[in-house]
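Fill in residues.
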């Protein structure tokens, strides 16, 4: 029995074939990893996330134009937290995508700083309209800056930070309402229920959620269940515990307050010109825009529930999300538009309270969806386009991205 020996050429060909096979397997594996990564963050926009952001904007329109309707009372305050939560998710997803593309971290920082400036300016322009509603854009801009400290931290750090803010932000916010009341910029950062500090738990919670694969049904179900549990706990506390606790707490506050204290001199130097904090009773309230731990817990619970349910909607009927996602894609433009509309109608002497119209909430929702869908037919919303051009100018000064 003879044994055939391979020539050096044949052996070399076999080695080349083996190398080619290994390279093919490696390419397939790399492609699979990228595909899995794409499922986590998505190569494009996440329709469910846009839809939830759109719901938040629609809730604001309901709150402002269907004022007295009890069916829309639940949106007050909750829509703000939902809007900010979606902002934190988008913020973190953008950072992760840029990191995966090998973009230098300074590019992301410059983009976020530029967007913070842009959003802040838009916010103050809206404040100058002097409408009767609070503007969160200056606080939103501040969160863009503060987020840079956390965006590349571990998920565990983000979770701990969210819990710490949920507990510590309310009392610090109340201190800020007194000590920072005369400084508008600092007040937007930490001086009241609409400040960055008060809304930070929702923003950081959004950054945390973005670390998980939201397109996974298991993750979406977990998020919805967690939101439901948070909402139930918050409601039970608000119904059975907080009323009696609030009475006792407020009685104690009155007993220790110095009623004989002379009012501060407003012309004195800081900090002799400030009023001591007087709003400690807000810590146990659940009313909208009190930014207490309990109100934030309720709002985040509802936000988690809505977000989880949106991502659980089957792909076959995801077309139901399309009109809401259209509003969400132009959320900044739509957010600003509501205050401009109120300003214009007030100047014209037109009453914009539609609470007297039957099914007014349905009407407001339909009009909002219609306006949002029309604007969304553009490549980007007007303010979104301006913001991207603005941050592109700043990011062009940074180092160019490198491929890994």
């Amino acid at each position: 029995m003879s044994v055939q020996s391979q020539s050096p050429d044949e052996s070399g060909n076999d080695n080349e074939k083996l190398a080619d096979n290994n390279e093919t397997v490696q390419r397939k594996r790399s492609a699979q990893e990228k595909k899995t990564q794409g499922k986590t963050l998505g190569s494009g926009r996440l329709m469910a996330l846009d839809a939830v952001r759109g719901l938040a904007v629609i809730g604001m329109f309901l709150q402002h134009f269907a004022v007295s309707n009890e069916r829309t009372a639940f949106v007050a305050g909750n829509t703000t937290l939902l809007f900010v939560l979606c902002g934190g998710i988008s913020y973190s997803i953008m950072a992760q995508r840029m990191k995966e593309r090998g973009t230098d971290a300074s590019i992301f920082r410059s983009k976020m700083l530029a967007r913070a400036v842009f959003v802040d300016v838009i916010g103050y322009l809206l404040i100058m309209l002097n409408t009767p509603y609070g503007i969160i854009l200056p606080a939103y801009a501040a969160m863009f800056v503060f987020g840079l400290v956390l965006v590349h931290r571990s998920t565990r750090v983000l979770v701990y930070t969210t819990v710490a803010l949920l507990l510590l932000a309310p009392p610090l916010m109340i201190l800020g309402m007194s000590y920072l009341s005369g400084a508008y910029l600092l007040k937007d950062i930490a001086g009241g229920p609409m400040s960055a500090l008060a809304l930070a738990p929702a923003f950081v919670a959004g950054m945390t959620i973005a670390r998980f694969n939201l397109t996974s049904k298991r993750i979406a179900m977990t998020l919805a269940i967690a939101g439901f549990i948070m909402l139930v706990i918050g409601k039970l506390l608000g119904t059975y515990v907080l009323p009696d606790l609030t009475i006792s707490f407020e009685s104690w506050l009155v007993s220790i307050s110095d009623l004989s204290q002379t009012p501060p001199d407003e012309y004195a130097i800081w900090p002799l010109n400030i009023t001591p904090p007087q709003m400690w009773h807000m810590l146990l309230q659940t009313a909208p825009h009190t930014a207490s731990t309990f109100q934030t817990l309720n709002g985040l619970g509802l936000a988690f529930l809505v977000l989880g349910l949106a991502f659980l909607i089957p792909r076959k009927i995801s077309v139901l999300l399309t009109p809401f996602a259209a509003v969400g894609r132009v959320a900044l433009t739509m957010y600003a538009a509501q205050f401009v509309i109120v300003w214009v109608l007030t100047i014209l002497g037109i009453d914009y309270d539609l609470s007297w119209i039957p099914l007014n909430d349905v009407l407001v929702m339909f009009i909002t969806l219609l306006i949002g869908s029309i604007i969304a037919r553009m490549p980007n919303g007007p303010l979104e386009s301006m913001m991207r051009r603005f941050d592109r100018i700043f990011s062009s000064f940074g180092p160019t991205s490198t491929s890994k």
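Residues 46-217+314-395 form one domain.
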